Amino acid sequence: MATLVSTIPKIRDALRATFRSGLTRPIPWRQHQLYQLARMAQNERELICDALKKDLGKPKTEVLMAEVGGVIEGALKSAERLPEWAKTEYPDVPDWQKSWKPAIYKAPRGTVLIISPWNYPMILTFQPLMGAIAAGCTAVLKPSELVPTFSQLLDEIVPKYLDQNAYRVVNGAVPETSKLLELQWDHIFYTGNGRVARIVASAAAKHLTPLSLELGGKSPVIIDSAYDIDLAAKRILWGKCNNAGQICVAPDYILVQRDKQDELVQAFQKHIDAFFPKGALDSPLFGSIVSDLHHKRLTSLLSRTKGKVVLQGRADAARRRLEPTIVKDVADGDSLLEEEIFGPLLPIVPVDSLDQAINFVNARPHPLVLYAFSDNESMKQQLVSETQSGGIVFNDTFQQLTVDELPFTGVGESGYGYQFMKHTYDTFTQLRSSIDMPKEAEEHLAMRYPPHSEEAVRALTAAVYTPIPPSHL
Known about the structure:
Helix content: 40-55%
Strand order of the largest sheet: 9-12-13-8-7-14-15
Number of strands: 17
Strand content: 15-25%
Oligomer: single chain
Distance between the termini: 65 Å
Number of helices: 16
Structural class: alpha/beta
Shape: globular
């Protein structure tokens, strides 16, 4: 059930009042909310699995691994590490400034808005919320209307575990989201596509609201012809099959040496058969496409390709099912290269050199992640130096998401702002710089007051005459 639009400003105002009351400031209170979040994920896991099965056809094991388990683990780790994260920092400064007690206080940003997508609706709702809770913010959660069962479930279970004075769920579609975006927030965290991100960013700009945009794009895979093609195919296929390819870090297309194309296709056939011996169409281990519209979009992309469909996956529009499909000899300008695929279609683009592959990637908007399979260290360094992407992953796909200490971010069209564990905490935290000038420092500060003596002028402008060491190219 959608939240009444007329109540949305009142919800925001109530959360702001809670923030100003200081309720969220004590570290033990924040830790308790994080533990409650973990309890919610653990206790309600069956309802969560059922909801995501109904909305997305998600396999239970995938939900427990990638959504429920991630929330439990992240919340527990955040609660454990929070006292250290929240410590006031005292930077190392020159001796003459030490008596000023320079400090960096960790302050919560305030009342924040988290807008999450449909593809991984649990982890992508609560991952940012963990950081907001840890930082001491209050928050509105706006889950996607494309997962109505799950969104309604959140409205029911979140108040049972989290303090309603600090955390609220707002459900609905465009009218409700539009009302949320009319309001001023202290930070907005949006996960989704670039089209909506522009709307969110425009709304935020009216209030000078800082925001994080976790978007997507076409994440390419470059395969070194000297690498183990069979292993590369297995790892790429696994990354592509998660949620039927409906994840922002899914491998989107492959760039491989022309004479290795057929070997790669054969390896994909081998591993598709191994993953789904009876096919993926009816497999409980393979997800469904989120909606009829997205299913039609994918089948339309496939129908218009000029590439050669070498592994044709079966489709069932009535159940929104679509098996992994491999297309080779895909060229620039093909339908499969028009937009982020966000589904189980995998085009292969043959190239004749690494430089050609790099130029192909660089001619497009910066991806969220660049995957590369190679044991050649100089090739890896060339990719690091000559490409841009949110992340770069060697010799695997998807698994980078399990490394909590790595920041997750995009660049350009794939978004901006950092998240995961402390990086999410930092997103929702303001660093408040401070000094505390002692009275005893007045003797050393005297020269700053006018009128200035010649000696004072020399001291105050000394940096202008600092010797600059020679340099040359």
